Amino acid sequence: MVYAVGVDIGGSHIEGVRIDSRKRVTNKTTIKLPKRSTKKAAVGMLYSVLDGLCEDKGLKGIGIGVAGAVKDGVLIRSPNSPFMDSTDFRKLVSGKYETRVVVDNDVTCMAFGEMMKRDEENILVVTLGTGIGGGLVSGGRLYRGKSHAGEIGHMSIRFDGPVCVCGNTGCFEEYASARGVRRLAAEITGRKMESHTVFEQAAKGNKAALRVWKEYGKLLGTGLSNLCFILDPEVIVIGGGISEASEYFMEAVKKEMRNRMFIPLPKIAVARTYANAFGAACMALEGQPR
Ligand SMILES: [Zn+2]
């Protein structure tokens, strides 16, 4: 049986899936990275994820999605995991597994996976986590611009806002990534809280936590409105860890978008789990798209 493996190397986890030739997921696994990881440790964990998913026969290829700018199989720069800068993943993995290896930006992988399984031809994928990532499908093809299209997290939504990790001010991801949730939680509850805690509190019906998500939805909706004016996608697919809380912020997102947009709103969908790894596996099966 022909199959492909896809891996998503995130800031906190490495996730992997195996898909068959019809792109059905047949196996999946996840491994947690320690808080302060090193390149060596992360690569060791990548190998153990791959060992668990690669069988002897039929491996068509391995796809690897990584957060940051990728060129020719190398992760050039990763603002949220700087210890991984300049890692040649293609060399590291193709040397060990003797198969085709494709390496791409994690959100581009997710966009490719969505393109494979959805009917729409114009898709915007947005991942909400440590940072914000974007991936674009235009007219049924990945849109890459010169090479770095989709860095939507660094679109400024407030010209004199706080300085972002990238050096720009008032970036979308200062407001709608996990940093934004933490800031809102501190403002509204007066307490330091991680986004998953705000999620748990909201699930228990805590009023302040629910308010945090409502305010968060307004900020996210503002950024998404800007993107719709430029891209006018048929669907926005939301992924990343924060998308787990979507039931608490989605209504506020849509309301904000309706308030701001005079053009019709797109559909908004929430991604499945393992969406990045699934897309990376699809790339390995199909060959890396340009
Ligand atoms: Zn930025």
What is the gist of this entry?
This protein has 290 residues and is α/β, with parallel strands linked by helices. The protein contains 9 helices and 13 strands.
Description:
- There is one protein chain.
- The protein contains nine helices and 13 strands.
- With 290 residues, the chain is of the alpha/beta class.
According to CATH, what is the class of the largest domain? Alpha Beta
Helix content: 25-40%
Count of separate DSSP helical elements: 9
| Separation, N- and C-terminal Cα atoms | 27 Å
Q: Largest sheet at a glance?
A: 5 strands, mixed
The count of β-strands is 13
Write the layout of secondary structure elements.
Blueprint: E1 3-9, E2 13-20, E3 25-32, H1 39-53, E4 59-66, E5 69-71, E6 74-77, E7 87-88, H2 89-97, E8 100-105, H3 106-117, E9 123-128, E10 132-138, E11 141-142, H4 172-176, H5 178-189, H6 195-203, H7 207-231, E12 235-239, H8 246-260, E13 267-270, H9 275-286
Parallel strand pairs: 1-4, 4-8, 9-12, 12-13
Antiparallel strand pairs: 1-2, 2-3, 5-6, 6-7, 9-10, 10-11
This protein binds zinc ion (ZN).
Question: What tags apply to this protein structure?
Answer:
single chain; 290 residues; five-stranded mixed β-sheet; 24% strand; binds zinc ion
